[in-house]
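Annotated sample (chain length 222).
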Amino acid sequence: MVKRDPHDILGVPRDAGQSTIKAAWRRLAREHHPDLTPNDPAASERATRRMAEINRAYAELRAGWADGGGAGAAGNGRRHWPPEPRPSRPVTGRVDTTATFRPRNTTTGPRARPLGQAPLRADRLQREPLRASQPTGPLNRRRQRNFRPPPPPSLADARARTIEFGKFHGHTLGQIADFEPTYIDWLARTISRDPDLVAAARVVQTELDERGVLRQPRPIPS
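Output written by the structure step:
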């Protein structure tokens, strides 16, 4: 089977820029997403294959940008991405440091004392009174009496949860699970500032495991 050119799959010219290719990918994703035909298994399977082809073409073009081949050039050297920075003049200005000069063996700070005098004792310094609690410490809710953790969201609510950050900003967890399921594993394992998002990601992760979707672990940055 002859492999189609990624530009033909996305319907963009060979010299298309990064924004044009990304816009075409989003438009095709909205048209051929499997969630649009939930009640037709055959149509959903065709849409899944079509969506995989679209994602593969978009990934190939993105790899061309990362390798320096340029958007639309496919590594032929005619264009480069990202563009080279503009040349700039070196900074040759002089910095006046006379105001920061201090003689040797001198102390600094608002509580500086002349040389030869004994330093202040630690018990004479004004300190904040001790507290019985730690307002900035962790809150062990499971140790509280009659505490019950909130129930996890349903699969429909979890797949409809929208991401507000990262490369999938504006996409739902359901779309991300179809585009790049390994990102769902990363959300469930890494994110800590949004417990509701983590709970939704774990629900989608469990659904992927039940369907037997194979994922390769994301590389841990060094």
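Annotation: The radius of gyration is 29 Å.
Annotation: The domain at 1-83 is CATH 1.10.287.110 (Helix Hairpins).
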